[in-house]
Structure to design on (581 residues):
């Protein structure tokens, strides 16, 4: 290697909403991207920090940044070096934009409730729309009704979107219904399928292959390219599911 | 009026430089696999560098011009022919209505671009003309072109001095360095480089790899020595074009234009932005080697590449403009 690895630089300390003092590291991902990274976990407190960073950087976006991608415990900033002014102190666009980002975050204060949207999503848990409900509840040694009720009894945070346009990773599931992915993914999962895997729940936005356990279906269209905001959910949204009957589902499904 | 697809190629799709600003919604940037070649082809017809072009893979399509057009082909050289007569890549060519474009045989390169002056008549989706597979509003109906598709052109020209179905390559071309495939692709280490054991860390830059045939626009699968160490899968985080992921079978994959926005495999390194176009054209038959570079050098090389392109675009644009005026 021509120079010592400089992709790991301890950077700043932030107090999470629960009082935990978090180290946020800067990791370089190539010459046009870097990430701010907390310890690796799916945790509401870590995500509150990620959300706060995201919201600060989204307000009055810095020129040259092309994408800001929040995930469970990290946030990645992608930039175009040709659109970033360099300075004598920061002779590369990379250093210059990192410096600008860190200055923005200097006085970051974190609130657990940092402007969250609360979204209600109807889910039909009828077994005809939930191919894994019966077998999965048997595996977990609970009744299908218990599984369903544990799924819609608490609000979830949208930690990130990925895998497909509009696919939201939500959590954290009650420990009693955490389930493994299918060893062999289905080749076809229908759009609107509500699914669980490990500590997470999600909704397939379009017809696609998929390995998660399918426990219901929503009539809401999660991805609509005709809309100016094509994705129904955004990172940081708070989602509550509520059960509907098969009849209600059929009435709500867009014709 | 349009370009008619007489015979479809293996994957003919509209691409520009990509769709940025939506990765937090899981919407990938996509875009041209070789952005340098697309920008070059745009420069040769006097378009803005990021205008959408037609991206082609071999076997390539057969196309017929249903109106006069000014075209350029850059990137891979598959011996393009108009009316059966060979034409050069990286040339500005006036094409008369009725002329048929074919590609004879793969000589060099993996991906080619066809641009037309004025661009293709497509509506951008979320600010980009790139094809996002399955999203009908992007590129040309969100899909690859098929036989008998009509790809509409935005601008009209009338070359009255040219005979029907003929063509005229203009008498200039840029002096370009062709991609050299005997120098290594340059890397920067990424977050999980230290997951590799010491021997494998060294192997990444000392061994040779080859690009497997099942590689595609989403990623290039590499065949090479096994990389071992402290493998584990991660909580998903963002990935980029050029990210090298370490897979459970101890091989590696290079993410390319249609990569998903996030992934959970260890990210051991990142190809520098300036080398992504060359990587896109890398022949499957040639060994691929990596070497480390510094972040500041990587950025400098990217700037130089952009400077070269801009110079070429300005020169080509000016020449073409004065030719069309005279």
């Amino acid at each position: 290697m021509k120079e010592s690895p400089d992709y790991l630089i301890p950077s700043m300390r932030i107090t999470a909403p629960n009082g935990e003092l978090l180290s946020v590291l800067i990791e370089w991902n190539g010459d046009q991207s870097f990430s701010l990274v907390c310890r690796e976990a799916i945790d509401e407190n870590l995500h509150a920090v990620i959300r706060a960073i995201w919201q600060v950087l989204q307000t009055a976006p810095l020129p040259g940044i092309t994408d800001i991608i929040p995930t469970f415990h990290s946030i990645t900033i992608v930039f175009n070096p040709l659109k970033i002014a360099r300075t004598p102190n920061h002779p590369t666009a990379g250093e210059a934009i990192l410096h600008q980002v860190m200055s923005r975050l200097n006085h970051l204060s974190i609130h657990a409730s940092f402007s969250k949207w609360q979204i209600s999503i109807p889910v039909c848990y009828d077994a005809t729309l939930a191919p894994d409900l019966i077998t999965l509840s048997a595996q977990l040694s609970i009744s299908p009704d218990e599984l369903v009720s544990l799924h819609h009894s608490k609000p979830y945070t949208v930690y990130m979107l990925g895998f497909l346009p509009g696919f939201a990773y939500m959590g954290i599931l009650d420990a009693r219904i955490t389930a493994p992915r299918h060893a062999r993914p289905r080749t076809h999962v229908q759009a609107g399928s509500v699914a669980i895997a490990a500590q997470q729940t999600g909704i397939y936005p379009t017809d696609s292959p998929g390995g998660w356990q399918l426990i219901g279906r929503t009539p809401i269209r999660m991805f609509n390219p005709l809309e100016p905001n094509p994705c129904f959910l955004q990172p940081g949204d708070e989602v509550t599911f509520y059960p509907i009957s098969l009849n209600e589902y059929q009435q709500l499904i867009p014709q | 009026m349009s370009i008619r697809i007489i015979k479809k190629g293996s994957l003919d799709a509209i691409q520009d430089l990509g769709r940025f600003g939506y990765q937090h919604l899981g919407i990938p940037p996509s875009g041209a696999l070789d952005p340098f070649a697309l920008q070059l082809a745009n420069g040769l017809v006097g378009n803005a560098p990021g205008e959408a072009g037609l991206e082609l893979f071999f076997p390539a399509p057969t196309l017929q011009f249903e109106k006069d057009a000014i075209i350029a082909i850059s990137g891979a050289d598959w011996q393009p022919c108009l009316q059966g007569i060979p034409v050069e890549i990286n040339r500005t060519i006036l094409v008369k209505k009725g002329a048929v474009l074919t590609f004879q045989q793969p000589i060099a390169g993996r991906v080619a671009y066809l641009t037309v002056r004025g661009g293709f008549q497509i509506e951008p989706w979320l600010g980009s003309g790139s094809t996002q597979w399955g999203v009908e509003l992007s590129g040309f109906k969100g899909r690859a072109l098929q036989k008998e598709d009509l790809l509409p052109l935005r601008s009209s020209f009338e070359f009255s001095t040219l005979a029907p179905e003929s063509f005229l390559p203009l008498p200039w071309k840029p002096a370009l360095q062709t991609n050299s495939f005997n120098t290594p692709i340059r890397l920067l280490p990424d977050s999980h480089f230290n997951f590799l054991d010491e021997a494998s860390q060294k192997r990444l830059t000392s061994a040779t790899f080859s690009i497997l045939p099942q590689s595609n626009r989403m990623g290039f699968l590499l065949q090479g020595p096994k990389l071992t160490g402290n493998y584990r899968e991660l909580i998903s985080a963002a990935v980029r074009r050029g990210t090298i992921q370490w897979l459970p079978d101890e091989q590696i994959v290079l993410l390319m234009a249609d990569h998903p926005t996030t992934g959970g495999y260890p990210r051991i390194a990142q190809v520098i932005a300036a080398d992504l176009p060359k990587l896109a054209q890398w022949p499957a038959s040639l060994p691929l080697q990596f070497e480390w570079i510094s972040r500041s050098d990587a950025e400098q090389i990217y700037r130089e590449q952009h400077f070269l392109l801009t110079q070429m675009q300005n020169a080509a644009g000016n020449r073409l403009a004065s030719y069309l005026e005279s």
Q: What stands out?
A: Residues 103 and 218 of chain B are 25 Å apart (CA to CA). The longest strand of chain B covers residues 69-77. The radius of gyration of chain B is 20 Å.
